[in-house]
């Protein structure tokens, strides 16, 4: 027994070494990137000089967060492959976003007075002289990203807590400080560079762990082990896309899962990557890389839930522990079956990478909304770059601290917070972005109506108990993003048609972009 404890102690030691080296590397990248920030365009968009591979992996790594490596495998481990409908929706959304939004948005943000942020793009696209769109968009981003960032920090705290048995609040503090350090120092370039490293690490971990675990448990034993683990409905139901915990999937559940894909065209931390790519050639390269990455990642994350059910048996995770299936697989695989604890440490860093790559992006987008959009755009229009830098860094610290305070509760629902934030941002901005790029008749009044109605619909649907103490969301089972997106889309179309048509100048800008009448690439 003593020898076993000593082996586990040695393994934890190597895992700690891997974590320390990884976290130090992220901070060093931030410090190196800080030297390249000579303007606000450098800090917020990396000078629009991102390469294709960095842009692709950065966009997808910042998108997936800990949900990919904890939430999705955990839900499939508990309820079966029917939970993969969300993954299907996200894949479809990713493909459509890269094919139809990325290139046109990059061109339009350059044509619209070189817009650096999504709120600034809305202002310039719709010639909003009163800065109403700028203010509404910025406030919406800060509010939803505050909660989103808190969920990411909480996930990091739970990772450290489960791996090292460190007090949750201490673990939360360590993760928050590291994320804050390299975001504070290096800005957008640091975030994208670290996201590239983190996206690569996530994919390697997703690829190696389920394949190695499957080899050990043997493919011929998977079905037998799943049945023996006591899944509802047996292995046949567990492996069916139309079964959910042994019960038939309802149409509304499938629609809600697929609706997650609608959120992509309204996510500021993803859209900003499109705006920052060096040129159209690099952007085309990004499309292929991003689509392949997200397909492999989602399929492998689903495989972890299935293989993990068989590999970890007779251990059965329950009572909220299901989301630790990937963590437990890594520890068992590389400390018991394969004696390589340093590899366990690196792959556990892959989970940390998923969490950090989202939190850093959200901090930076929130900072740009406050410093570039609210302060420079509304409060102090003549603010110099040095002032904007200072305010943005103060904002990063303030939002990180507020998110940290929200995340201090170890029982906070990470998936619930992510779901609501994703729905709010997707419903508020998605239809507005889509129609601003593809419908010439969209005007200022329509954009305001779309953003306001989308955000309010999600809030009403998820938080106000209309039906016997139940919200509309819990009563119907329909994801609020599906409803909010539809309401916002209709609001934009109806209001735009009932109000004056866009000016000739706005129409000319639209035609310049849609017909590529201007060279939008950097020379």
What does this protein structure show overall?
This protein has 523 residues and is mainly α. The protein is built from 20 helices and four strands. The protein has helices spanning 2-34, 40-45, 52-79, 85-111, 118-125, 132-164, 168-217, 219-228, 234-238, 251-259, 268-276, 280-311, 325-337, 341-379, 385-407, 414-438, 444-463, 472-476, 480-498, 504-514, and strands at 243-244, 247-248, 465-467, 470-471. It has a two-stranded antiparallel ribbon with strand order 1-2. Helix 3 (52-79) packs across helix 14. The longest helix is centred in the middle third of the chain and has 50 residues, at 168-217. The radius of gyration is 23 Å and the shape is globular. The protein starts with a helix and ends in a 9-residue tail after the last helix. 57% of the residues are buried.
Number of strands: 4
Principal-axis shape equals globular
- What structural class should be given to the helix and strand makeup? mainly alpha
Provide a count of the helices.
Answer: 20
Rg, alpha carbons: 23 Å
User: What can be said about the biggest beta sheet?
Assistant: 2 strands, antiparallel
The topology string of helices and strands comes to HHHHHHHHHEEHHHHHHHHEEHHH
Bin the helical content.
Answer: over 70%
Arrangement of strands in the largest sheet: 1-2
- Low-pLDDT residue intervals, each spanning 5 or more residues: 1-7, 39-47
Distance between the termini: 67 Å
Average predicted local confidence, pLDDT: 82
Q: What fraction strand?
A: under 5%
């Amino acid at each position: 027994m003593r020898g076993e404890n000593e082996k586990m102690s040695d393994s934890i030691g190597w895992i700690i070494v891997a974590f320390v080296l990884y976290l130090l590397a992220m901070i060093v990248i931030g410090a190196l990137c800080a030297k390249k920030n000579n303007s606000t365009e450098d800090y917020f968009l990396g000078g629009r000089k991102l390469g294709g591979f960095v842009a692709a992996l950065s966009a997808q790594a910042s998108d997936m967060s800990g949900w990919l490596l904890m939430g999705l495998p955990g839900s499939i481990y508990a309820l079966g492959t029917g939970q993969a409908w969300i993954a299907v929706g996200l894949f479809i959304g990713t493909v459509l976003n890269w094919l139809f939004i990325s290139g046109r948005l990059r061109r339009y943000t350059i044509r619209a007075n070189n817009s650096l942020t999504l709120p600034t793009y809305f202002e310039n696209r719709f010639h909003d002289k009163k800065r109403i769109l700028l203010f509404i968009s910025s406030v919406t981003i800060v509010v939803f990203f505050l909660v989103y960032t808190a969920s990411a920090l909480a996930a990091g705290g739970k990772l450290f807590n489960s791996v090292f048995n460190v007090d949750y609040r201490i673990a939360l503090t360590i993760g928050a400080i590291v994320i804050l350090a390299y975001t504070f120092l290096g800005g957008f370039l640091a975030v994208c560079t670290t996201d590239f490293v983190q996206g690569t690490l996530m994919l390697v971990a997703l690829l190696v762990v389920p394949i190695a675990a499957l080899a050990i448990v043997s493919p011929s034993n998977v079905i037998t082990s799943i049945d023996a683990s006591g899944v509802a409905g047996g292995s046949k139901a567990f492996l069916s896309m139309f079964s959910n915990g042994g019960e038939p999937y309802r149409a509304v559940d499938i629609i809600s899962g697929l609706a997650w894909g609608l959120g992509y065209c309204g996510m500021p931390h993803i859209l900003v990557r499109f705006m920052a790519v060096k040129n159209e050639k690099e952007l085309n390269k990004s499309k292929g890389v991003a689509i392949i990455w997200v397909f492999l990642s989602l399929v492998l994350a689903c495989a972890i839930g299935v293989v993990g059910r068989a590999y970890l048996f007779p251990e059965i995770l329950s009572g909220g522990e299901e989301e630790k299936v990937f963590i437990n697989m890594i520890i068992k695989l590389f400390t018991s079956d394969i004696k390589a604890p340093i590899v366990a440490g690196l792959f556990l860093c892959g989970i940390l990478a998923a969490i950090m790559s989202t939190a850093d992006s959200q901090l930076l987008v929130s900072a740009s909304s406050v410093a570039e959009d609210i302060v420079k755009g509304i409060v102090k229009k003549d603010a110099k770059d040095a002032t904007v830098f200072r305010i943005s860094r103060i904002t990063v610290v303030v939002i990180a601290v507020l998110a940290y305070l929200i995340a201090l509760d170890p029982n906070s629902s990470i998936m619930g917070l992510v779901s609501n934030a994703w729905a709010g941002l997707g419903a508020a901005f998605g239809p507005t972005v889509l129609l601003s790029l593809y419908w010439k008749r969209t005007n200022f009044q329509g954009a305001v109506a779309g953003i306001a109605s989308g955000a309010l619909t999600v809030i009403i649907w998820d938080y106000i108990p209309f039906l016997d103490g139940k919200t509309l969301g819990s009563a119907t089972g329909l994801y609020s993003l599906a409803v909010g997106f539809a309401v916002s889309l209709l609001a934009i179309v109806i209001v735009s048609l009932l109000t004056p048509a866009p000016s000739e100048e706005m129409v000319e800008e639209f035609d310049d972009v849609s017909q590529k009448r201007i060279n939008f690439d950097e020379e």
